[in-house]
Amino acid sequence: MQYFYIEPNVAGGLGNHTVLDPSVHPPIVTKLHYEVEGWFGDVLVTTFPCYLVTEEAQRALQKMGFSGATFADVEVTTSEEFHEDQPGQELPPFVWLKVNGKAGRDDFGIAANYNLVISKRVLELLESLGIPFAVVEPYDGEQQ
Fold this sequence. Notes:
alpha+beta; 38% strand; globular
C-alpha cells in the first residue's frame, strides 16, 4: 500500500479551554478546544499536535474501516476574525481525530518528524470529501 504525508489546512488554533501537558514534545492534549479563524471547506484540519475531521468524514471512515486513529469530542468555537472575514459561514460539526497508529503501516500514523501520514485509500476518501487546501507528498518511510 502507498502512504502519503499530509499537511492539513490550519483553520484555527488551540482555544482557551484546551487542557495539555507542555512538559513533553509533542504536548499531550487531554481536552481539545479548537478555535476556528478561517474555514474554507476542508474535511480535515489541524493545529499542532491535533487533527479534526468533519462528522461526515468520520462516518465515511467508519464505514470504510480504518486503522491508527480513534475519535473523541472536541469543543469548536469561532474567533472574531472568522465572523469578520467569513460572515454567515456555517461550520459543519467536527470531531477530534486522535492518531495513534504507526506511519507506513496503519491508515493513520505520525512520522518521526511529527507529520501526519495516511494510506492511499484514506487519501482518496478525504479527497472525495474535500481537502482543497491540504498539502500531500509521497511518504517512503522514516526520514533519517
